[in-house]
C-alpha cells in the first residue's frame, strides 16, 4: 500500500500545535526573574535607606528609570530597527519581532508614566504637570498605541506591516525629543542622575538601582520571547489557512 504524505497546508496543519510558547531558555529566564525580583525588592524596600532630599520617594526611581530606558530605547528602538529591516528585506521575522517589541514597550512606557506620576506627587506636589519630559514621553506612548492599532487594521498583511514599520520609525524619532527635552526647554524634571563620570547615587541606592535595571531587563527579554513566539505561531496558522483556502477553491474550479 502506498502512503501519501501530506504536503503544503496539510503538512503544516498536520504538525502538532505547541501547548505553550515555553522552552528551556524561557524557563531559565523566568526563574532568573523570580530570583532577581526577590533580591531587588529586598534591597529596594528594606535595605536601601531613604534618600536625604527625596526620602522614600527615591524607591520609585529604582523602577522608573529602568522602565523608561527599556521602553524608549530597548523596545521602541527594536521596533524601529525591525521596521527598517522589514522595509528593506520584507523579512517576516523582523516584522514580528518589531510588533512584539512594540507591545512590550507600550507596557513599560505605561509603567514609566504611572511611577513618574507617583514620584511627582511628593516631589512636585501634583501627580501631573505638562512638563516637556512628561509630555514628550506621553507622545511616545500615544504613537506606539497608534502603531498597535495599525497592526489590527483589516488590510493586506504586507501593506499593514509597511505602514506599521514607517510609524514605528517615526515614533522612535520622538525618543530624541524625550532624551533632550530637559535641556532644550525649561523643565521641572531632573536631568541625568546617572553619569559615568559624576553620578548622584552611591552605596545601596546605586546597588538597588542596578538590581532594578537587571531585573526589568531580564523580564523584558522573557516577555519579548514569549510574545514573538505567539506572533510566529499566529503567522504559521494564517499561512496554513490561506494555503488550504486556495487549495479548496482550486479543487472547486477543477484546477490542478
Structural description of this entry:
The chain is mainly alpha-helical. It has a domain at 62-182. The protein has helices spanning 8-14, 24-47, 58-89, 92-124, 132-151, 157-184, 203-253. It starts with 7 loop residues before the first helix and ends with a helix. Residues 1-14 and 195-199 have low confidence and may be disordered.
State the helix count: 7
What portion of residues belong to β-strands?
under 5%
**Terminal-residue CA separation:** 24 Å
State the share of residues found in helices, binned by percent. Answer: over 70%
Rg from C-alpha positions? 23 Å
The number of E-state strands comes to: 0
Largest sheet: none
Uncertain segments are 1-14, 195-199
What string gives the helices and strands in order? HHHHHHH
Mean pLDDT: 82
Q: Which word captures the global form?
A: globular
Structural class: mainly alpha
How would you summarize this macromolecular structure in one to three sentences?
By secondary structure, the protein is mainly alpha-helical. It has helices at residues 8-14, 24-47, 58-89, 92-124, 132-151, 157-184, 203-253.
Please outline the helices and strands.
Blueprint: H1 8-14, H2 24-47, H3 58-89, H4 92-124, H5 132-151, H6 157-184, H7 203-253
Helix pairs in contact: 1-7, 2-7, 3-4, 3-6, 3-7, 4-5, 4-7, 5-6
Write a concise keyword list for the protein shown above:
mainly alpha, 7 helices, about 0% strand
